[in-house]
Amino acid sequence: MEDKQIRERSPEFLRARDRDLLFGVILTAASIALCIYAIRISSACMRILDATFYTAPGFLILIIGIMLLACAVYLIVNALRNGGSFRWLIPSRLWKQLRDDKAHYAVLAFFYLYLYMVLLWDAKIPFTRITFPFWANTMLFMMLIMFTFKVARPRTIIIMSVVTSILVYVTFKFMIGVPLP
Predict the structure, then answer these.
(1) pLDDT digits (tens, 9 = 90+) for 61-95
(2) 140 vs 82, 89, 137, 172, CA distance in Å?
(3) Residue 131 bridge partners (DSSP)
(4) CB-based burial, 44-76: b 16+ in 10 Å, e otherwise
(5) Beta carbons within 8 Å of 100's beta carbon, 6+ residues apart
């Protein structure tokens, strides 16, 4: 029992709970945004197509949003019970955290996500009027993430990215019938 108490008060354990708390708050905000989005698209569909709430496309998204919200609340409560706090967000402590050798990975991951979701989502290929295809955008994003985190050998990363992008595109476009951007 003493070993567990010592481990639970170690700096690494408390840092992990601090990260859990921050992620829980971010996940809460994202889940609420997802629920609002789901209700908006369901409302629009019900107006336009005279659909019921349960058959509208946002219903499943709303359920996913609610489940994510429940997970976020659990994560926050658990982190707070085990000593998590936002003290590390004080500017002097935050600067120390950002200088950590692994902090640049988080910055790179968010930069790649920004590229994927904002810059390349509906971008035109330079000097043409052709929109950058979804499958190429997804493949590029996956490759960047996997190369950054050194998930596998380069050949394996390329194969995984190509196959996954094509499978996602084919599944949504032809099997499910949902057009992707």
Answers:
(1) 899 999 999 999 999 999 989 888 888 777 877 77
(2) 39, 33, 5, 19
(3) 124
(4) ebeeeeeeeeeebebbebbeebeebbeebeebb
(5) none
Integer Cα distance of 72 and 29 in angstroms:
9
pTM attached to this predicted model: 0.57
Q: Which long-range contacts (CB under 8 A, 24 or more apart) does 27-32 make?
A: 27/68, 27/69, 27/71, 27/72, 27/75, 28/69, 28/72, 28/73, 28/76, 30/68, 31/65, 31/66, 31/68, 31/69, 31/72, 32/65, 32/69
Amino acid at 100: D
Other C-beta atoms within 10 Å of 42: how many? 22
Residues written for the chain: 181
CA distances from 145 to 96, 139, 148, 153 (A): 25, 10, 5, 13
